[in-house]
Amino acid sequence: MDTTLPTTMLSTAQEAAKKAGEIILKYFGGDVSFALKADKTVVSIADKEAEQAIKELVMKRFPSHVFVGEETGTTGIGKIRWHVDPLDGTTNFKNKIPICGISIGVEMGGEAVLGVIYNPFTNQLFWAEKGNGAFCNGTKIKVNSLSLAKGIVVLDGSFRDDRALRKIKTQEELLSCGATIRAIGSNVLQLSGVASGQFVCSISDAVHSYDFMAGAVLVKEAGGVVTDYLGNAVTSDSVVVIASNNQENHRQLLELTKKYYLGYQGM
Questions:
Q1: Domain edges within the chain
Q2: Sequence-separated (6 or more) residues with CB below 8 Å from residue 141
Q3: pLDDT in tens, 150-197
Q4: Which of 36, 61, 184, 185 has the fewest CB atoms inside 10 Å of its own CB, making it the most exposed?
């Protein structure tokens, strides 16, 4: 199968992310109402308008592609799939915490091949294409070389349901190894943080394809490792995603996730 991507896909993803960022900044800190979704996460007009702006641009330029959005679901039938989270970190957004990101990832032949993550609050635009490296605002980025004990491990911020106990046990073992732990409340910024050298590792559970498709490309192109909790390559169906700066740290994390997430199906 031909895996060559249209040359305008990256620029389209970057443009779409910036448009969504403008919408998020417009609503941030304002009198915005939020609704509770079936999965117990929240959604607002900012999420919906940002996704619509991305979707309109992508589908106008690539009508034969598939759009998989957090808020609007799946549109289209085709070999190239766009996985979009228009506002990752909505709980942060709701509480006026400026730690949120937009994620646009492209999958082809079951593999993540292009990713764009935008933090509108810091104006950091991350992007990567398979085989072409990872960048932030035009500067090439790479993972750091720290050990698990010397760097920061970041966990996603959700402690609902049975994932809370799994996560607490994982943290206890990480702390016993001397790791420093943070939870920032945005899966996509966790992954861009690993790619840019802020974090040594990231663990996210109960995720969907739009939470990690872009970040998986970033981390791999920045020299890191990304798998599910069993060490398999991530797919659009993965529910736990582990990202690390090197194989040794990844091996240590997998020992924990295999122990505490075995049989986990997400929520």
A1: 9-140, 152-260
A2: 126, 134, 135, 195, 196, 197, 222
A3: 999 999 877 777 788 888 999 999 998 889 999 999 999 999 999 999
A4: 36
User: Of all residues in the chain, what percent are helix, strand and coil, respectively (each to 5)?
Assistant: 35, 25, 40
Which tokens sit at 20? 């969504």
Fold of 9-140: Fructose-1,6-Bisphosphatase; Chain A, domain 1 (3.30.540)
Calpha distance 166→156 (Å, rounded)? 12
Q: Are strands 180-182 and 201-205 parallel, antiparallel or unpaired?
A: unpaired
Question: Residue 151 has which token pair?
Answer: 């760097």
User: No. of H helices and E strands in the chain?
Assistant: 7, 15
- CA 19-82-3 angle, to 5 degrees, is 125
Q: Count other Cβ atoms within 10 Å, centred on residue 113.
A: 20
What is the SS3 assignment for 229? coil
Look at the block and give the residue holding tokens 């069993």: 230
Domain 152-260 carries which CATH code?
A: 3.40.190.80
User: CA 204, CA 212: separation in Å to the nearest integer?
Assistant: 9
The DSSP element (H or E) to which 201 belongs, if any, is strand 201-205
Q: How many Cβ atoms sit within 10 Å of the Cβ of residue 237? A: 9
* Predicted local confidence at residue 80, as pLDDT: 96
What's the CA gap between 124 and 212, in Å, rounded? 18
pLDDT in tens, 16-37: 999 999 999 999 998 888 877 7
Residue 131 CB: number of other CB atoms within 10 A?
Answer: 9
**pTM (two decimals):** 0.94
Would you say 199 and 222 are in contact if contact means Cβ atoms under 8 Å apart?
Answer: no
Q: What is the pLDDT of residues 244-265, one digit of tens each?
A: 999 999 999 999 999 999 888 7
